[in-house]
Structure formats: structure tokens, C-alpha cells
Write a structure and sequence with these properties.
The protein is an all-alpha fold and 193 residues long. It is built from 9 helices and no strands. The chain has 2 domains: 90 residues, Rna Polymerase Sigma Factor, Chain: A (Orthogonal Bundle), CATH 1.10.1740; 86 residues, Winged helix-like DNA-binding domain superfamily/Winged helix DNA-binding domain (Arc Repressor Mutant, subunit A). The longest helix has 25 residues.
Length: 193
């Protein structure tokens, strides 16, 4: 938790205090942005824009004790902006994540992580944020609601819908997997000759 005295000093233009705030919370903001956006460049842009906005808007923050919730809301807006920008400008390429069948090779944990990653990428940004804040940062729904400035019921709803969507995506992926099989006997015999 960031000390309110540091926030107050930064509100009055103390660059050293703001640097202390960035040191205290910058890494966490970037981790949240990366986990939500799944792209290092987009996460870096969202984090940098968040810190720039925080510096510019910090004098208007009414309650220094609410700094973390306030900056988290700014990050959420910037993640949305970067996510929309990426989906608008990136071409729809064949082989995008989730479009290729999974080849089962006995690497259970790798396959499980891959399935979870593809399912997570299919969530909308609001659902991703709820999942990241709850399961990655281990925040309770009441704190998430405060950070995102939404009702607690909405947090529960987003989490429930996100988990349902991820289960459905994983089930769909499992139905489309192509098992690895050995070549037909005729091909094996020709390869031996």
C-alpha cells in the first residue's frame, strides 16, 4: 500500500515523491496491463499512459488514501484503449491464437497452460480485468469493485461469465484437437526400404 504522505507530496509537484509512487506501484500496474492485454508493447503503452495521466491529474485527486484505486481505474481505461487500438489496427492473420488445432504430445502442463491462455484471450477486457484482479492479484470482489468503480454484483457477474466462457472455450478446443497417430503401416514399410 502506498503511503498517503507520499501521494500528498506528489500532488504538490514533488517529482521525487512521484518517482517513489512509480517505484512502489509501477511494476504492479505493468503486470496487470500485461496479464490483461497479453502483449508487452501494449502493456508498456497502457502503463506509461497511466503514469503520465496520473502525474497530470494527481493534483485533482480528492482523497490521497484512494490513490491505488484511482490509478487502477486509469489503468483500466488505458487497457481498454490499447486493446481497442490493437484490435482495430492488427490484421486478421491466419494462425491467430486459438485457430490451430492442438497436437497432444504428452506435455500435459504445457497443453493445459496453452488451453488456458487461448481461453483467456477470448474474454473481453472487462472479464480479463476481473479475472486478473481476483485470481492473479488475489483481490476480493469488494476491493475489485472499488478499484474499477463498479458494483460488487457486477464483479461477481463478470467473474462468473468469464469462468463460464473459459470453460466453454476449453471444451470447444478439446473437441477440435487432432490426436497424434503413427503413420499407416504402408508408409512405415516404405520408409524402412
Amino acid at each position: 500500500m502506498v503511503g498517503s504522505d507520499l501521494v500528498v507530496r506528489a500532488q504538490h509537484g514533488d517529482r521525487t515523491a512521484f518517482t517513489g509512487l512509480v517505484d512502489a506501484i509501477g511494476g504492479r500496474l505493468h503486470a496487470i496491463a500485461f496479464t490483461v492485454l497479453r502483449d508487452r508493447d501494449l502493456a508498456r503503452d497502457a502503463t506509461q499512459q497511466t503514469l503520465l495521466t496520473a502525474w497530470e491529474e494527481l493534483p485533482r485527486l480528492r482523497d490521497p488514501d484512494r490513490f491505488e484505486a484511482w490509478i487502477c481505474r486509469i489503468l483500466v481505461r488505458n487497457c481498454h484503449r490499447e486493446g481497442r487500438k490493437a484490435s482495430r489496427w492488427l490484421p486478421a492473420l491466419p494462425g491467430r491464437p486459438g485457430s490451430d488445432p492442438v497436437v497432444v504430445d504428452g506435455s500435459g502442463s504445457v497443453i493445459t497452460r496453452d488451453r488456458l491462455e487461448r481461453a483467456f484471450r477470448r474474454l473481453n477486457l472487462d472479464q480479463r480485468l476481473a479475472v486478473v484482479l481476483h485470481y492473479y492479484l488475489d483481490l476480493p470482489p469488494a476491493i475489485i469493485a472499488d478499484r474499477l468503480d463498479i458494483p460488487v454484483g457486477t464483479v461477481h457477474s463478470r467473474l462468473r461469465r468469464a469462468l463460464h466462457a473459459m470453460h466453454a472455450a476449453i471444451d470447444a478446443d478439446e473437441r477440435t484437437e487432432v490426436p497424434v497417430t503413427s503413420p499407416p503401416a504402408r508408409i512405415r514399410q516404405e520408409a524402412v526400404r
